[in-house]
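Give me the 3D structure for Acetyl-CoA synthetase-like protein.
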Amino acid sequence: MASHFITPTLQALAKYPSRPLFKQYVPQNGSPSWVSISYETFLHDLERSAAYFVETLPALGLKQNDVVGLWITGVKYSDLAHIYGLARAGYVPEVLNAKITIPIIRDLFAKTGGRALIFEPTFASSVGNDFELPTLPIPELNSLSTPSSALPPLPDVAPTDRGLIFHTSGTTSGIPKPIPETHRWINSHAQVLWPRTWQCYTDGRPLILNNIGSFANIGSAVAIAYLSWSGHCMVQTSKSDFEVDEFLAMLKEGLNALFLYAPWFSKLLNIAKRDANVLAALQGLSQIIYTGAALNPEDEIWATEQGIPVTAMYATTETAIAMVTPFAEKGILPAMRLIEGLDYKFIPTRGLEASDLDRDSEHRVQGGQLFDLFLPAEADNCPHESVRNRPDGHITGDLFEEVKPGLYCFRGRNDDWIRTGKHFSFCDTKSIEDHVLTSCADLIRNCVVVGHYKPGVVLFVEPTKDINSPEDEAALKSAILERISAFNARLIIHERVNTLSQIVSVPSGSLPRTTEKGNIRRKAVEEDHSAILDEIYAGLEI
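Predicted structure for Acetyl-CoA synthetase-like protein (542 residues):
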């Protein structure tokens, strides 16, 4: 494989000039509608973008292989063209989503070495005039000219050099974690992992599938690399949790495969149980892949019984796709196998019991050994060295149980990250707890953040002083909110403790703890206080 990831991408784009690569969502009179963009058009657009950056960025003091921030809406076709155009110009795009703020961009650049910021023009007022590095608004594609001469050669890169930079969906101490994707990683994703994941792709018929989220996030942004390599097409949705009428309209656009996060797929299955047209539509697809979480067992059984061609997939921003349900093995959801040819292995997890898992995972375990998934450093999609958490590779932090030889089921996380918010994004509970304990040391003795697979987070606190009245409790909560306000503002919305109702005061020492270390047991807190939590979640708007 060529070292720079854009080289095989360009070669692949040129193979299918007349095929549709992207169907842009352009609603007509309030109804779903799309405009097709061919492989040839996209290639032309990215080359025009590249030519613009080749001309403008050196004048700002930048050179090839510099990291350049690209702050985008994540919903425009042009966002994709500019990500790949910036890469073709020889730079390393650090893709920034619309929720990130200028102070956070400064912090991210300090970690990644970002040298300039190219921003969506509607963000101009946020950028202001005091950003320390060069800034440039993203040009409109239709304003760019066709290159009058050949683009310069791509820079020399090593397979393990950074090709693109994305970020985690949650933050650590108010800063998303940068996740560089190496050239080796992107090429492996496009040419090995993707074709082996979509197992219905056996007759050469192009897949036409939906995007999964914003183009500022890795799942959709890297799409061009894997779509072009296989000759596939992506249909843009109006939002991640698109409505049923949009799903049915996409079928008329040729949609023949579906790529969804588990929560929305579960909602779609519930609709299909009542709507024969939706059920027939799901049954008629070539393959449906869900990811991000497990379905509830009832949905898994029902989907299998109805002949819906569904497979589970395990992937992370750090590792790309690692596991998928074998398409030919029926009735085994949510079990998955490692993708053939990957140099991974499972290693036993030590010091963790099933009772330490979240409620759903504990319910599912069958009494077997729990395993960590380990990627050695030499694996093609082992994360960049700045991300690895082992000297010889990387452990994902997710737990698995072998339910049959070679078949593994996801069994939750082994650390302090939970999934929360509208799209069940990651949230680093420990960083929030540490800040609360530091800023409110005179007010509380201990605390814990809960909210796994819930609309938002709730903070439980044990006060240093007795609470004798509702007024005392309200005063305590108000003081906590005031002290964490600056930190809170830096968090992504699903991580924030914004209201008094998201703080629960309990007597000192009453939160359940582990016997050996005395750590607060997050899952047990959720179970012990389920009634009050249900009431909080019912009134929570994120």
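DSSP finds 18 helices and 24 strands in the chain. Let me know if you want a second pass.
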